[in-house]
Amino acid sequence: MLKAGVFGAGHLGKIHLKLLQQSSEYELIGFYDGDEQRAKEIEDEFEYKSFASAEALIEAVDMIDVVTPTITHFETAKKAIKAGKHLFVEKPITSTYAEAEELISLAKKHKVKGQVGHVERFNPAFTAVKDKIGQPMFIEAHRLAEFNPRGTDVPVVLDLMIHDIDVILSVVKSKVKNVSASGVSVISETPDIANARIQFENGCVANLTASRISLKNMRKARFFQRDAYISVDFLERKCEVVKMKDAPKDPDDFAMILQNAEGVKKQIYFENPTIDANNAILDELESFAQAIKNNTEPVVSLEQGAEALKVANMVIESFKK
């Protein structure tokens, strides 16, 4: 079992602590939180060992799990990597792309593994259809959330939209060509609602909307490609695949047939892939353990986390134009 330590014992940090303790892949050694009062309360309530310093925790483990505010990711991760420890870090990987590049370089130098916590990659609705998404040419994503003060220290792009950016980059095998976006600050000092249009070199276009001031929660994405439409509901964990194929000469009475202006007939049929219930956070943590043990590429590498951050920053920069 890998010895694991958690940095940060806030809302998400407590979830990670619980799951690491339950996991058969890890031995939870303890945690470090800079808020001494909160650290003591969590140690007393849950009996997780609280370390007095970041350095002491790093020394005691094989892998660290960074679940602290984004602004602290870089310094914490750098200490761990230099000590030869494997790194799991919540999204976004760091505050700046330059910091992410430095972490990637350090990880290679010290021969440690790194994974970024883009949890939607492990959402069962997405994993059920990912292999069916071949060459999407238009993608539409909506990620709407009710207001929560937690996370408003960064723009909604880094808080919410970056989830969809990462998912899209994982299925579109082409470089980003252009980004245009707009964002509006309503409650926070940074934009609370944003829309981005991302164009890829292969012609694919992605239209993304993210809001943290909505009256209801929504996390949906739709992928359009030749002869297929795929929808993913990340919140409800549902998905649907609608495909078209050349219509048979003698379709049955219940077949759905469409005919275009040129007279070409297509038959529509539906697939509802099997969705296996899971805990996506536990899955991402345990997949990282497997990558360490088997010396394989993590599902969401530091490089992929950095690329998602780079595109997110392109969206934010587009606000200023």
TrEMBL record:
Top-level lineage group: Bacteria
One Pfam family linked to the record: GFO_IDH_MocA
GO molecular function: nucleotide binding
Limits of the GFO/IDH/MocA-like oxidoreductase domain: 133-216
InterPro entries for this protein: Gfo/Idh/MocA-like_OxRdtase_N (IPR000683), Gfo/Idh/MocA_Oxidoreductases (IPR051450), GFO_IDH_MocA-like_dom (IPR055170), NAD(P)-bd_dom_sf (IPR036291)
Domain Gfo/Idh/MocA-like oxidoreductase N-terminal: from-to ranges: 3-118
Name the record gives this protein: Dehydrogenase
Species classification: Bacteria, Pseudomonadati, Bacteroidota, Flavobacteriia, Flavobacteriales
